[in-house]
């Protein structure tokens, strides 16, 4: 559903609801018009009672006055322009004080004895205050400081005198109350000042204690904040130092682990040490391995000696022969030194390997362990310094915060102390002037009583009488749960009223001699059936096949079926009427056709349909009207109506007759009419407003619609034409309406000529 559809649906629902409400209002107004006697009686009774009360009631007079209330001080402050106590906001308090026991007691002492006896005579003295309070009323207009006071009494002069005494007693009580406010206020202020002074001393002592616990604090100003900033910078530097120390410790541990791995793997420890260690470590390696300047000097010295020997050898060869002993000696020495110089690297490498394994590795491990220990100690020291500095900063921050709170508390207490001291100093200047009252309107002696008042008595009498009368009419209307107008039927059943059949007198005779349309075709009552026939014919839907039923037994649906069938036949239409009420066949009983021929036999017959119809179809004395009676009472009427043979019967009849009328049992009694109603074009519901309850009629209509039947409309039966005002329905009748649905073979009562058996 689209949004527009929902809006339209909601609008239609609203219109329907408004129409329903309007209809209910007009319906109730019609009911009031019909029962106007009850309303008139209620109005007369209430008027009599109201006038009786007005004549006999005791006259009560009311005197009024106004009191202007002005506050010149708050009762604690002396500032004449103080806004701490607004008289407008305190008016409820002043109003309540007016009816206090002490004020009333003072007024009674002032009131002359002759006026006191007017309202209090006969009452015990303990009840005087309560009695005065009941007659006294005080109020104030919104956002004003003017009190309106009134007092009621049986005597106008007594009312004015009592109100005058109340104003005087109220003023005296206020004056006496204000006299003690100065001393009490000073005492209260002194106590509060002492408490504030003690609180200030306690806070100042705490402040000194905090400053002593933090020597770096010199004041609670910017220098203390600078101290905190310096500590924060120290913390930042120590944090960086701690990070560096921790990094160096981790690097030393990593170097130690790599050295141990190199030793275990037989790698070149010397090369690793020269690359991984710092300058101190490399110096340790050189010292441990015997490397350094001494080895270089030794090699240079040998080479210099070789050069010298070569020089001497050259000089000797120039002097001596090749085989001279001097030359041989020099050559041998030169050979030895050259060989030593050639073997020196190998000797050095062998010595280095031995020194590396036996001396250097243990010394390097020891050196790195010492370095790790040293770095760990340094890391711990830096960490402790950092923690100490952080603790110091946290403590200093807390101290500064607490000092700030203390300073604010002390400042607030000083402000309170100054304010209270100002109030204390000013109380004496405004002593007894906190509240002032002035009578702006003096009590007057009333001329006319305020109770009872004739206009109010008349108005209340009319309202009570009207309300009582309408309530009685509404209750009677609720108790009488019946339809009263055709409009009401249309509204509740959502269908049309086809015709209204008047109450008919019983005709003597049997068979068609008891049918009104046949015996008296020109009577006034018969016009109602012709109107019904016309309404059906002008319907917009097919009405060739109709089921006539009712809400309950005794509503007259058989009378309507029979007379409507005769009316159709008299109009020239070939008409077939079928009595489908096989449980309590009123139509067959009316026509005297209770035998073994009829609908039940036709539906159960094994013969073909044409043969069975020919054997069970009856012609009548009315030209163009044929009848199929109910036949023998079956044990399963509903199953027979549900059979295909009954549907085939209706189809056969539709081809041979212009109009088919099926007289079915009441809707709420059995399910037969709903079964037959689904096979025909429409259903007509007969209603007797004088006996059918509204809920039962609505239920019958809903049952038909729920089961798929088309409700063409309703026929209002047994209308009392003599009752022309309002309701339009008669309540008396002279026929037999006994009709029930059970398992008896014969109906409880057989209807006669103009009767309405079912």
Explain what this protein looks like in three dimensions:
- The chain has 758 residues and is α/β, with parallel strands linked by helices.
- The chain is 61% helix and 10% strand.
- The protein folds into 3 domains: 61-179, no CATH class; 224-429; 494-719, Rossmann fold (3-Layer(aba) Sandwich), CATH 3.40.50.
- It is built from 25 helices and 12 strands.
- It has an 8-stranded mixed sheet, with helices on both faces.
- The two termini are 46 Å apart.
- Residues 75-84, 723-740 and 742-758 have low confidence and may be disordered.
Q: At the first level of CATH, what is the class of the largest domain?
A: Alpha Beta
Number of domains: 3
Number of helices: 25
CATH topology of the largest domain: Rossmann fold
Within CATH, the superfamily of the largest domain carries the name: P-loop containing nucleotide triphosphate hydrolases
| Largest sheet, spatial ordering of strands | 5-12-11-6-10-7-9-8
Based on secondary structure, the structural category is alpha/beta
Beta strand count: 12
- What is the general shape? flat
Quick recap:
The chain has 758 residues and is an alpha/beta fold. It has 25 helices and twelve strands.
Features:
758 residues, alpha/beta, Rossmann fold, four-stranded antiparallel sheet, 10% strand, flat
Give a topology summary.
Layout: H1 3-34, H2 36-56, E1 61-71, H3 91-98, H4 101-110, H5 113-120, H6 128-135, E2 136-140, E3 146-153, H7 156-179, H8 181-213, H9 222-265, H10 269-276, H11 279-289, H12 293-319, H13 325-427, E4 435-441, H14 454-479, H15 486-493, E5 496-502, H16 516-519, H17 524-537, E6 545-550, H18 557-570, E7 575-579, H19 586-591, H20 599-604, H21 609-616, E8 618-619, E9 625-628, H22 637-641, H23 644-656, E10 659-663, H24 672-677, E11 682-687, H25 694-706, E12 711-719
Parallel strand pairs: 5-12, 6-10, 6-11, 7-9, 7-10, 11-12
Antiparallel strand pairs: 1-3, 1-4, 2-3, 8-9
């Amino acid at each position: 559903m689209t949004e527009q559809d929902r809006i339209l649906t909601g609008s239609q629902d609203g219109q329907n609801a408004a129409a329903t409400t309007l209809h209910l209002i007009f319906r109730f107004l019609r009911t009031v018009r019909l029962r106007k006697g009850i309303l008139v009686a209620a109005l007369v009774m209430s008027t009599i009672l109201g006038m009786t009360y007005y004549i006999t009631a005791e006259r009560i007079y009311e005197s009024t006055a106004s009191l202007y209330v002005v506050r010149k001080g708050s009762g604690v402050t002396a500032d004449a322009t103080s806004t701490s106590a607004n008289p407008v906001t305190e008016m409820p308090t002043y109003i309540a004080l007016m009816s206090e026991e002490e004020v009333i007691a003072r007024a009674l002492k002032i009131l002359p004895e002759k006026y006191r006896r007017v309202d209090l005579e006969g009452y015990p003295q303990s009840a005087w205050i309560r009695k005065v309070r009941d007659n006294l009323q005080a109020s104030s207009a919104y956002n004003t400081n003017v009190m309106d006071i009134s007092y009621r009494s049986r005597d106008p002069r007594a009312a004015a005198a009592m109100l005058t005494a109340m104003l005087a007693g109220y003023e005296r009580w206020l004056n006496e109350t204000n006299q003690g406010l100065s001393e009490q206020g000073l005492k209260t202020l002194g106590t509060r000042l002492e408490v504030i002074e003690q609180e200030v001393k306690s806070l100042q002592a705490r402040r000194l204690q905090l400053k002593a616990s933090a020597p770096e604090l010199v004041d609670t100003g910017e220098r203390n904040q600078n101290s905190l900033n310096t500590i924060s910078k120290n913390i930042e530097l120590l944090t960086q130092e701690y990070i560096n120390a921790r990094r160096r410790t981790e690097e030393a541990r990593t170097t130690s682990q790599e050295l141990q791995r190199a030793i275990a793997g037989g790698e070149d420890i010397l090369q690793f040490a020269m690359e991984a260690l710092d300058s101190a470590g490399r110096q340790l390696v050189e010292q441990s391995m015997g490397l350094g300047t001494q080895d270089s000097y030794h090699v240079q010295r040998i080479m210099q000696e070789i050069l010298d020997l070569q020089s001497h050898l050259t000089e000797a060869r120039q002097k001596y022969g090749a085989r001279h002993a001097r030359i041989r000696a020099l050559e041998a020495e030169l050979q030895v030194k050259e060989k030593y110089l050639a073997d020196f690297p190998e000797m050095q490498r062998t010595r280095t390997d031995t020194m590396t394994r036996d001396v250097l590795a243990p010394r390097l491990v020891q050196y790195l362990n010492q370095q790790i220990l040293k770095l760990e100690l340094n890391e711990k020291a830096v960490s402790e310094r950092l923690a100490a500095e952080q603790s110091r900063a946290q403590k200093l921050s807390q101290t500064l915060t607490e000092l700030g709170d203390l300073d604010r508390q002390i400042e607030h207490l000083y402000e309170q102390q100054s304010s209270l001291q100002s109030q204390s100093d000013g109380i004496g200047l405004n002593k007894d002037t906190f509240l002032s009252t002035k009578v702006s309107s003096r009590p007057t002696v009333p001329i006319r009583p305020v109770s009872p008042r004739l206009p109010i008595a008349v108005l209340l009498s009319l309202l009570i009488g009207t309300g009582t009368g309408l309530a009685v009419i509404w209750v009677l209307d609720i108790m009488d749960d019946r339809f009263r107008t055709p409009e009401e039927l249309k509204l509740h059943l959502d269908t049309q009223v086809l015709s209204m059949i008047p109450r008919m007198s019983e005709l003597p005779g049997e068979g068609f001699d008891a049918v009104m349309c046949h015996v008296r075709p020109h009577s006034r009552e018969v016009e109602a059936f012709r109107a019904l026939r016309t309404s059906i014919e002008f319907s917009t839907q097919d009405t060739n096949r109709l089921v006539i039923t009712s809400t309950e037994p005794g509503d007259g649906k058989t009378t309507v079926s029979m007379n409507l069938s005769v009316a159709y036949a008299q109009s020239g239409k070939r008409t077939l009427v079928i009595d489908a009420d096989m449980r309590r066949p009123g139509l067959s009983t009316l026509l005297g056709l209770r035998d073994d021929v009829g609908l039940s036999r036709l539906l159960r017959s094994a013969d073909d349909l044409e043969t069975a119809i020919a054997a069970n179809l009856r012609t009548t004395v009315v030209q163009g009207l044929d009848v199929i009676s109910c036949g023998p009472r079956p044990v399963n009427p509903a199953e027979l109506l549900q059979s295909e043979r009954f549907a085939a019967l209706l189809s056969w009849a539709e081809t041979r007759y212009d109009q088919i009328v099926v007289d079915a049992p009441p809707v709420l009694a059995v399910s037969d009419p709903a079964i037959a109603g689904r096979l025909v074009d429409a259903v007509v519901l007969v209603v007797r407003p004088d006996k059918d309850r509204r809920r039962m009629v609505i239920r019958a209509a809903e049952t038909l619609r729920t089961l798929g039947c088309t409700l063409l409309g309703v026929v209002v039966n047994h209308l009392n034409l003599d009752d022309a005002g309002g309701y339009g329905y008669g309540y008396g009748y002279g026929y037999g309406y006994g009709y029930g649905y059970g398992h008896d073979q014969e109906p409880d009562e057989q209807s006669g000529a103009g009767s309405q058996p079912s």
